[in-house]
UniProtKB/TrEMBL annotation:
Keywords: FAD, Flavoprotein
Ranges where the Pyridine nucleotide-disulphide oxidoreductase dimerisation domain occurs: 334-430
Gene Ontology MF, one: oxidoreductase activity
Name this polypeptide is given: Pyridine nucleotide-disulfide oxidoreductase
Family of the protein in this entry: Belongs to the class-III pyridine nucleotide-disulfide oxidoreductase family.
InterPro entries, A to Z: FAD-bd_OxRdtase (IPR050260), FAD/NAD-bd_sf (IPR036188), FAD/NAD-binding_dom (IPR023753), FAD/NAD-linked_Rdtase_dimer_sf (IPR016156), Pyr_nucl-diS_OxRdtase_dimer (IPR004099)
Pfam families in UniProt: Pyr_redox_2, Pyr_redox_dim
Cofactor: FAD
FAD/NAD(P)-binding domain location: 6-304
Phylogenetic lineage: Bacteria, Bacillati, Saganbacteria
């Protein structure tokens, strides 16, 4: 059988893989591009928590192939089992050998399975990004009354919010840290999420670990580190994920300190013809250059655009040379966003900082229907006045306010620049121009710097 030749091969069919392939097509219109994925039907990662109640049908969260078809990118459903760097080829499970000029690794991450006894019992579910698997989880969920979620990060709280919206479900969440979302928010913001979930009836066990999953073949309860037990017909693991680097390691590619694949600013591995992007890649913090365990579709697609543009020549010069951990989440109508350093992480790193805070109504006048309070917290360098981080909580607009904060961090905006920010306002859309929360938070800190 003759080996098939391609100019660009992408391994992985998630957001990173798809965007790198379509970006490569835009910059290199004459190249022959192939994307290989090992799951026939994937899902949109950020939509996974909403496949169980919010969406009428899990299929509404399918990751489609339309962008590939539209951009004339070939698609193969198969699994790459070996990369042969000397021959510049990959071997697949189906026995194919494919030759490449440039290779992009977008292999994602695998759910973390903590060392808890009993995780192999029936009805214990790590979160895999595969349609058939998640449909199976939904089927089991229908018959489950008592659900225990392990992990109080984004995955855990979003699942808790979704499951507690289903009638007749008793939802418990166990988190090892003292408060929810501890890796991304300060305690005052995590406390707001706790209040929301408890109002919805979620039973929270914070500062506690799961010691064992109990039951015969099927889970019946979980035992906590303090000895108490919680009844459980189903356990969902929302602890996070680890980079999928097996293929890269076997090919002799270097890993960074955080166990993701090492890449330079242009997503090139130690092999100049192999790029790596997304969750399988190590990230470096924007301010400290330390390894950063961030796994976000938004970060992955930003990296994918850098890789896709720069496969053959460095066409897009990268000015943002670090990862700004920028998140948003939604819990029962409450929107939270975080970007850059939190107050706690900045202090832990030894930065000398000042904090600016402000609250304002999301509309003006505040008597307009649907108005909620928007709270902004900004972290500045005390000496230079440069913005280093920010958090926001409020209504839907908070999801975009955090993106403004993210851009301001990337461009190293000062408190003075934010204080004189020119913004568009409208009664139905924003806080009043006299009380725009980003401006007020910057003003709050200017006198202290």
């Amino acid at each position: 059988m003759e080996n098939q030749k391609y100019d660009v091969i992408v391994i992985g069919g998630g957001p990173a893989g798809i965007i790198s392939a379509t970006t490569a097509r835009k910059y290199y219109p004459d190249k022959k591009i192939l994307l290989i994925k090992n799951i026939e039907k994937g899902v949109i990662p950020c939509g996974i928590p909403y496949m169980f109640e919010t969406l009428k049908n899990p299929e509404e969260n399918a990751m489609g192939n339309a962008p590939l078809e539209k951009n004339n990118v070939g698609l193969m459903v198969d699994e790459v089992i070996k990369i042969l760097r000397q021959e510049k080829s990959v071997k697949t499970k189906a026995g194919k050998t494919l030759i490449y000029e440039k290779l992009i690794l977008a292999m994602g991450a695998n759910p973390i399975l903590p060392p808890i006894k009993g995780l192999d019992k029936e009805n214990v579910f790590p979160i895999y990004k595969e349609m058939s698997y998640l449909k199976g989880l939904k089927d089991k969920l229908a018959a489950a009354k008592n659900i225990v979620i392990i992990g109080g990060g984004f995955i855990g709280i979003e699942f808790a919010d979704e499951f507690s919206s289903i009638k007749g479900k008793n939802v418990s969440l166990v988190e090892a840290f003292p408060y929810l979302l501890m890796n991304s928010f300060d305690i005052d913001f995590g406390e707001l999420v706790r209040q929301k979930l408890e109002t919805k009836g979620v039973k929270l066990s914070l500062n506690t670990k799961v010691a064992e999953v109990l039951g015969q073949d099927k889970v019946s309860e979980v035992r906590l580190s303090d000895g108490t037990t919680i009844p459980a017909d189903m356990v969902v693991l929302g602890i996070g994920a680890s980079p999928n680097t097996k293929l890269a390691q076997a090919a002799g590619l270097d890993l960074g300190k955080g166990k993701g694949i090492w890449v330079d600013e242009y997503m090139r591995t130690i092999d100049p013809d192999i790029f790596a992007i997304g969750d399988c890649v190590g990230k470096r913090d924007f301010f400290t250059r330390k390894d950063l365990p961030v796994m976000l579709a938004s970060t992955a697609t930003a990296e994918a655009r850098v890789a896709g543009a720069n496969l053959y020549k460095l066409k897009v010069v990268r000015e943002n040379k670090g990862t700004i951990a920028i998140y948003s989440t939604y819990v029962d109508g409450l929107v939270l966003g975080s970007a850059g350093l939190t107050e706690a992480s900045a202090k832990a790193e030894g930065f000398e900082i000042e904090i600016g805070q402000a609250e304002a109504p999301s509309k003006h006048p505040a008597t307009l229907p649907g108005t909620v309070k928007t709270k902004v917290k900004l972290i500045f360098s005390k000496q230079s006045g440069i913005l280093m981080g920010g958090q926001v909580v409020g209504g839907i607009s908070a999801g975009e306010i955090i993106n403004i904060i993210g851009l301001a961090i990337q461009k190293r905006v000062s408190a003075t620049e934010l204080e004189t920010l020119q913004m568009a306002t409208h009664p139905h859309l924003t806080a009043p121009p006299t009380m725009y929360p980003l401006v007020l938070a910057a003003q709050d800190v200017v006198g202290k710097i």
